[in-house]
Amino acid sequence: MDLIIRRAALTTHKPGRDVPVDIAIDAGRIVAVEANLAAVAAQEIDAAGGLVTPPFVDAHFHLDATLSYGLPRVNVSGTLLEGIALWGELKPELTQEALVERALQYCDWAVARGLLAIRSHVDVCDSRLLAVEALIEVKRRVAPYLDLQLVAFPQDGLLRSAGAFENLKRAIAMGVDVVGGIPHFERTMADGAESIRLLCEFAAEKGLPVDMHCDESDDPMSRHIETLCKEAHRLGLGGRVAGSHLTSMHSMDNYYVSKLLPLMRESGVAAIANPLINITLQGRADTYPKRRGMTRVPEMLAAGINVAFGHDCAMDPWYSLGSADMLEVAHMGLHVAQMTGVDAMHAAFDAVTVNAARILGLDGYGIAPGCRGDCVLLDARDPVEAIRLRASRLAVICGGRIVARTPPARAALALPGRPLEVDFKLRR
Ligand code: FE2
Q1: Distance between CA 262 and CA 39 in Å, rounded?
Q2: Known catalytic residue: 299?
């Protein structure tokens, strides 16, 4: 046995009702999950009742833009429009070496945060496909410890940007995994619908998944999700299609949404909300009341639609913050969607773990015999405490090997008659 984590709480663990379990990993796979395991291992970790979760999964990110903060200048207004202008200024200056270096640095942060799978969009509108080449190289280099899935993303529009479809096809031929799109950015609603048809037919022909930026708008009439569902249904792509953002749904007419949600369920289209970005970029043109802009997460979950949360951006032209922390993403998503019920808080944790893993189609994901030997020990006893504290990742394990450690967050106190240390957990 390579590694045993003793006395671990799982996400399903009920304190006081369930005994913590031991998790044994051998030859890269979990081989046993049971209480008081008799076996011994070359290396052992005492979780002491701490939560052990499968790794965090980011269903929506942009590795080609990440960590470019300040290049060539910062986004002074913090708006989407200045972000797009900035990206336009940065693109001609991109070099493959710098793209690879920044993406690798972000992957280091991700591993340190227990984030071991990322679906990243990559802009294919530059005919040089520099970013595609760079991220394929990054994917190869991080493969031993991080699942990187790439989406061919026509940022400037499939039909609106000359050569974009050819570039997208070239990117797929080079090894990009998923077909992307941005229907709401095409010139007309009709062009948007046409781009969805073309992209879904291409994906069906190639047997690939689809993940489109879809309806990232405050316009309640931006209804491309409807067309995406129809095409997924028509072409039998169900389960392989995701709509990212879907922010227009926040502003849609309720009656229309009551028709839309069953349509999404029927077609098997999953949804990816990006709370950090949606709450900062949407509703920007409003005065007050100011819309939150994030899509209808609890309603979609209640309708049986798979919903994940993505990080989307970190220190790039659109967003100056972020540190690869999917617990920060879950924390924001929970607040924006008012998911404060007990089950809803657990659902927010699922949105950055198991739900996202389903969208990426990850094999062997979970804490059970036969699953991959990948997991994260958190300085928290349950998922809600993990979100509340954005808990330290005490140990990140990949293939049965510890790949990152973070010390627990503790503050030293110097107060008469009070404890010497606080860890922000309720004393039970
Ligand atoms: Fe995005």
Answers
A1: 49
A2: no
CA of 6 to the centre of ligand 1 (A): 39
CATH of 56-360, one of 3.20.20.140, 3.40.50.1370, 2.60.120.10, 3.30.1490.190: 3.20.20.140
Question: From ligand 1's centre to the CA of 31, what distance in Å?
Answer: 37
Say if residues 165 and 179 touch (Cβ distance below 8 Å): no
The catalytically annotated residue of 186, 216, 226, 231 is: 216
Q: Are 109 and 137 in contact (CB under 8 A)?
A: no
Query: What pLDDT does residue 225 have?
Result: 98
**Among 219, 196, 246, 293, residue whose Cα is nearest residue 60:** 246
- Averaged over 275-295, what is the pLDDT? 96
pLDDT tens-digit map of 116-152? 999 999 999 999 999 999 999 999 999 999 999 999 9
| CA 312 to ligand 1 centroid distance, Å | 5
Distance, CA 180 to ligand 1 centroid (Å)?
10
The predicted model gives 349-376 an average pLDDT of 98
Fold classification of 3-54+366-412 is Urease, subunit C; domain 1 (2.30.40)
